[in-house]
Design brief:
Elements lengths: L2 E5 L3 H12 L3 E5 L23 E4 L5 H11 L3 H8 L1 E2 L4 E4 L1 H14 L3 E4 L11 E3 L7 H11 L4 E7 L2 E3 L9 E2 L10 E6 L1 H13 L20 H6 L26 E7 L6 E4 L8 H8 L10 E3 L2 E8 L1 H4 L5 E2 L2 E6 L9 H19 L12 H11 L28 H24 L1
Parallel strand pairs: 1-2, 1-7, 2-6, 7-17
Antiparallel strand pairs: 3-5, 4-5, 8-15, 9-13, 9-14, 10-11, 11-12, 12-13, 16-17
Helix pairs in contact: 1-10, 2-10, 2-12, 3-4
């Protein structure tokens, strides 16, 4: 029987093991806990949730809800656990942590094709393997991955800026321009007067922040300063940093504004824009309130909120193939948050795809590309096709999906999201049918 090694028993590793084992592979699953705990984990159970107990929205017309629907259609173990451990949380899918992790642990340890080995692995196997060691990868494995892919392509923190739905920007209040006119009108500029800037600066200072955990040393973030830290360093620090107006003449006035927030497109369809330099530890509620003070963003819909936290992830566009194998070693697959996705469900999704593709490889079967118009495919497209010079992890949102082919007459908002979701489900079902037919 073909044998697959999986390193890491979090959500991604657990899902990968399940997919491969159900397909008939012999799986050796390595997990260092409980012999060696991370700074965030508290138990030795597989699939332990270390932050929130929420898997986010269950609405299939949202990015997270659609991704969960696709996972369920693929008989995901993690979604089975979520269904059985669900607790009341309105439209969100929240779970009892212990029941959730216990269900995952019991199903994996009882599966006849899975052998669970409780010890740390600090070398990369020389056979087909999946590395799913997560954002808190141990030092030994971090060193091994860095050596395998090249140290410059491995990172140890997230510095994520918010992403805004393009349809929610008030274009009559902003203008397009690049600094000094270089590179074309590639940026949307949100100008501020002196009084608007001062009010914004005060709001940033007063806003609630997410508390940093003890192991998330502040030095990690010196190279990507959160806006609230810059604001604390003086009233003009933001204006000489990410909100610098120099070289950005407003064509309507012929003058530079007092301060500017720049938005950079996230995709070729220009359906989503990144708030340049706005990595932050403000809570999501405060981000929504404070960032809507920005000229042109009064009605902004945020597809992703900003964050800063410790993470270990690869520069996926430089080193990863679309099947989640490494470009320089196609026997090694990467899965979960280490690939550059963000969130419980996104990590699970990459585990599912890695497990399927490792199964196909070891069985000598044809690899099948995940359709880009599905949630899974949109994430893979993001992590493998983004600009490698400014790659940062992302969760799932509708800004990652390819544009609808026939948008004429399609309304914005829910109708558009419904069409994207229906297209995704159809193409995902076809993909799963092809996998099952192999």
């Amino acid at each position: 029987m073909a044998e697959l090694i999986i390193i890491g028993g979090g959500l991604a590793g657990s899902e990968a093991a399940w997919q491969a084992a159900v397909g008939g592979l012999s799986v050796i699953l390595y997990e260092m806990r409980p012999q060696k705990l991370t700074e965030a984990h508290r138990t030795g159970m597989l699939g332990e949730l270390v932050c929130s107990n929420s898997l986010r929205s269950g609405d299939i017309y949202s990015g997270p809800g659609l991704l969960k629907k696709e996972l369920s259609l693929a008989s995901s173990l993690i979604m089975q656990a979520a269904d059985r451990a669900r607790v009341p949380a309105g439209s969100a899918v929240a779970v009892n942590r212990d029941l959730f992790a216990r269900y995952i642990t019991d199903n994996l340890t009882c599966h006849p094709n899975i052998t669970l080995v409780r010890r740390e692995v600090d070398t990369v196997p020389d056979s087909t393997a999946i590395i799913a060691t997560g954002p808190l990868t141990s030092t030994g494995m971090t060193d091994a991955v860095a050596e395998l892919i090249g140290e410059p392509y491995l990172y140890f923190h997230d510095a994520i800026a918010p992403i805004v739905d393009a349809s929610s920007i008030q274009y009559d209040k902003v203008y397009k321009s690049s600094r000094y006119g270089k590179g074309g009108d590639d940026y949307i500029n949100c100008p501020m007067t002196k009084s608007e800037y001062e009010s914004f600066h005060g709001a940033v200072m007063a806003a609630d922040k997410v508390k940093r955990r003890d192991f998330e040393n502040a030095r990690i973030f010196e190279g990507c300063m959160p806006i609230e830290v810059m604001a604390m360093r003086g009233p003009d620090t933001l204006r000489f940093g990410p909100m610098k107006p120099v070289g950005l003449l407003d064509p309507r006035t012929g003058r530079e504004p007092y301060a500017v927030v720049q938005l950079r497109t996230e995709n070729v369809e220009c359906t989503a824009y990144n708030m340049v330099g706005f990595q932050t530890r403000l809570t999501w509620t405060e981000q929504k309130k404070v960032f809507r003070m920005i000229h042109g963003l009064e009605n902004a819909i945020f597809l992703r909120y900003g964050s800063l936290h410790r993470n270990t992830f690869i520069n996926a566009p430089r080193v990863l193939e679309k099947d989640l194998s490494l470009k320089n070693n196609q026997d090694i697959f990467m899965a979960g948050q280490i690939t550059g996705v963000e969130g419980y469900i996104e990590s699970t999704a990459m585990g599912l795809i890695a497990g399927i593709n490792a199964f196909l490889k070891l069985r000598g079967k044809e690899m099948i590309e995940v359709p880009p118009a599905t949630s899974h495919g949109a994430l893979i497209r993001y992590i493998t096709e983004s600009n490698s010079k400014r790659f940062q992890p992302s969760n799932i949102h509708f800004g990652l999906f390819p544009a609808l082919q026939h948008p004429t007459g399609v309304k914005k908002g829910k109708e558009k999201r419904k069409m994207i979701a229906e297209r995704a489900i159809t193409e995902w079902q076809d993909y799963i049918s092809q996998i099952n037919a192999q």
